[in-house]
Amino acid sequence: MSKFIIDGGRKLTGELTIHGAKNSVLPILAATLLIDHSTIHNCPSLTDVDASFNILTNLGCQVVREGNSVTVQTQGMNGCTIPEHLMREMRSSIVFLGAVVARCGKAVISMPGGCELGPRPIDLHLSSLEKLGVTIKEDHGYLNCTVEDKLRGATISLPFPSVGATENIMLAACTAEGETIIHNPAREPEIVDLANFLQRAGARIHIGENGTIYIQGVKKLYPTEHTVIPDRIAAATYLCCTAITGGEVLLKNVMPQHLTAVFPVLEEAGCRLRCAGGTIHLEGPQRPRPLRMVRTMPYPGFPTDAQSPMMALSCIASGTSVLVENIFENRYKHAYELTRMGARIHLEGRVAVVEGVPKLHGARVVCTDLRGGAALCCAALAAEGQSEVTKINHIERGYQDFDKNLRSLGAIIKKVSE
Ligand code: EPZ
Q: In terms of CATH architecture, what is 2-18+230-417?
């Protein structure tokens, strides 16, 4: 296990290139199971991506990484079982279910289990796949999935626009017989990126004006290449890290249109933003202003994954901020760690009230989850004195070269073994 040692108080300034999106490449790696041969470019180096490689190789596929490009060959696929240790390695491995069932006509996967954000139910995934013709039996923590005859298209209305459930339906429906319509699907950019990858491979997918997804099943998908979109949450995180230090940063290889809900909040905090093509320039304020009300919502609303870094920024605001976490039921664990640094945060169910303080002080804090861990580092960058951020394996799930990137902007941060 490793930890970060951070000496706070330095303004971050400089330029940073943003890596490929974790939440795009993970479902796309699952989708490679539908194709004999795929090459994915701009694939970030993350432990969640490594966990996906392990699942693919465990199924008999060949995965070869060359720099930021990964080639997946699936002709040697010789299994349809994803064992518990691999399912537990990464919460979102449930997204492999739709692809394995579509490829093999059956799947045996361990229940994914909960995670730091609370129980992560998969009822929408399972009920949707059953509508497509999958029979699912639970047995001692494993899901035994079979398809009697073949997967058949269906009309599915999601009661909640679940990202993972939308992805599982897309992966199972691409080669099903007939049309699948998904009403109230997730509309995140990562869903569009997955659709683009599948369309390049020959899938017939159309996303309507109102977001409804129409899929006409095809017999086969064909070898293809794809470049993953930039990681909008990593971009939002580095913007918060710069803003909290009153610094200035130019982010490159970003898609500003994916951050339209984040920009107004950063501007409310007193940041000055300029976007041009694939770049975002931010100038942070001397001291952040308070955030009247930040509500996390499904895309295109404010992203839940940016809630914790934004909370960190609000900890030193010149007033009281209010955040409401509407997506996950337990996504404030980082707040307790922030209070160890002198933050004043009051939690009431989904509502967090943050009374800004002039300064945070360094402390030894523990990462509780991926984005919460990044938020602790964000706060430590502005804190007076030294902080120790432990259990940074959480951070390495979703941020490539996190400490190296922050150092390149002038932060005093080093990674040491615990
Ligand atoms: C994806 O998770 C992302 N992960 C999450 O990012 C992100 O926070 C989330 O979407 C929301 O945007 C990946 O893409 C790998 P959901 P997912 O299904 O698919 C409930 C990060 O930090 N729900 O949209 O799991 C669920 O409990 C991660 O990068 C059900 O009730 O999100 C949650 O409250 C964290 N039943 C809400 O819906 C289901 O069957 C949102 O879940 C599925 C979900």
A: Alpha-beta prism (3.65)
User: What are the domain boundaries of the chain?
Assistant: 2-18+230-417, 22-227
Determine whether the shortest distance from the Cβ of 187 to ligand 1 is under 6 A: no
Expressed in angstroms and rounded, the spacing between residue 165 Cα and the centre of ligand 1 is: 9
Q: Cα–Cα distance between 126 and 291 in angstroms, integer?
A: 38
Handedness of CA 192, 198, 200, 205 (dihedral sign): negative
Fold of 22-227: UDP-n-acetylglucosamine1-carboxyvinyl-transferase; Chain (3.65.10)
- Closest ligand 1 atom, residue 303 Cα: 12
Kindly state if the Cβ of 328 falls inside 6 Å of ligand 1: yes
Considering only CA atoms, which of 264, 329, 158 is closest in space to residue 272?
Answer: 264
List per-block mean pLDDT (blocks of 10 residues) for the chain, which spans 418 residues: 96 98 98 98 97 96 98 96 89 93 96 71 95 95 93 98 98 98 98 98 95 97 98 98 98 98 98 96 98 98 98 98 95 97 98 98 97 98 98 96 98 96
Q: Is 222 in the pocket of ligand 1 (CB under 6 A)?
A: no
How far, in Å, is the centroid of ligand 1 from the Cα of 23? 10
